[in-house]
Amino acid sequence: MSLPAAHDRDLDPRHAQPHPEGGGAIVTDPAHLLPARSAEPPAKGSWLRKIIVLAILLGVIAFVVWRIQSNAAETAATNNKAASAANRPTPVLVSAVQQKTVPVYLTGLGTVIPYNTVTLHSRVDGQLLKVNFQEGQTVKQGQLLLQIDPRPYQAAVAQAQGQLAKDAATQKNAAAEAQRYTALYQAGVISKESQQTQISNEGQAAGSIEADNAAIQAAKVNLSYTSIYSPINGVVGLRAVDPGNIVHSSDANGLVVITQIHPIAVIFTLPEDQLPQVQQAMRGAKLVVEAYGRNDAHRIAAGTLLTIDNQIDTTTGTAKLKAVFDNTDGSLFPNQFVNVRLILRDRPNATVIPSVAIQSGTQGNFVFVVHAGVGSGGGRKGGRPPATSANPASPGSDTSGANADNAPKYHVDQVAVHVDFAQGSNSILTDGELQPGDEVVIDGQEKLNDGSNVQPTQPTQPTQPQQVTAPSAPTSANAIGSSGGNTPQPTRTGGPLPAMQLPPKQPAHRRGGTGTGNSVATDESDGPQ
User: Model-level pTM?
Assistant: First the structure.
């Protein structure tokens, strides 16, 4: 590399600068002392970088093209599977429409109360000697239950009787004196006043006898109070006083409580708006009242309606009603909570279907009724319509529906219904909408449209539970809670499922379904599409 001459740089105006303090001296730019930079040749690695970037771009483009083709193939296979699935009938569970007599009733909450309740108190003071019953015992009317020491009251009776004998003798003497004085007065020996005094003494003696007789009766009554008898038929509760204690007629607490539970009563409430229906039904005959448990599923007992209270509770707007039950089996117990059904009448030939069959839509309630033949809809609810493809089924596609061509064909029709009222798991419909024997879908409605092809199946009928072998009594080696012990487990004998076991699941080719054969819930959001 050649350097320019010094005088050439000095003559270059870029290097000549005036002196900062003036004068004619010329100061040259120090930059001229550096070697001059010559142009660099292009780097050899730039072409390599371009080749690498180009290769990466080509790889990305190839991957994208491959991915698109792969997705297209997967989509085509999925469409083929969906079309194959759409062409198959939808498995559903069905139940037959029934026509039977159903009761029309009102429901309320009730409390069981004894028909009669008696709290026994002592009417005299004294020591409790005997308790002639056991707690919880059933007693009869007139049965001796408690005995108080009677000796003080026996003495009082004897004292009253002695006073009567004394006063009787006095009265006899007074009567004789009155007769003598009357004779003397008639003879003119004594005055009228003396005769009348003796007659008065006789009357006072007779009055004393009457008082003595009353005192004897009072003493006998108090003596009878020492024996306490049962005034009703019922069951005795827990005694409040033990033998040997002194009882008083002024005690606030009683000795024992007796409740009559045969028959027994139930007090329940109904809204005031329902009272006219009850009063109208009571004019014809006695109304039947049924008592159910807390879960409102098990009927405990049945009785008759006795009366309606004579006033309405203004705070709740309800009226109290009283029903009477024979309760011969003792199934009702005082203060027990029950659900009450007051049966007003029976509705004959009512159309009854399971409540799970009813669907809700924009036009109201409807059900799917199964009919023979191929439907016009054919597609599944929310799915694609059936499609045909010229390509053969790809490996792994479901072709199980090919054997169903010879099977009977069924489809569903959407029928609007009106529910009059519900009873438990069933609904009673307006007459004429469905016919007895019609089969309605109770499970699988979420995949149906009006006219969809279906494969109906009756729900599995419950069977009697099989006998379960009880485990042998645990020993000290395998008792519950012992260390390292194994408690024998019950083993089920062979046979069908027990009564409460879930029915079998649907076949494996049923796709997209979430319901099972024992579903009782209805999806209110599903409506006609």
Answer: 0.57
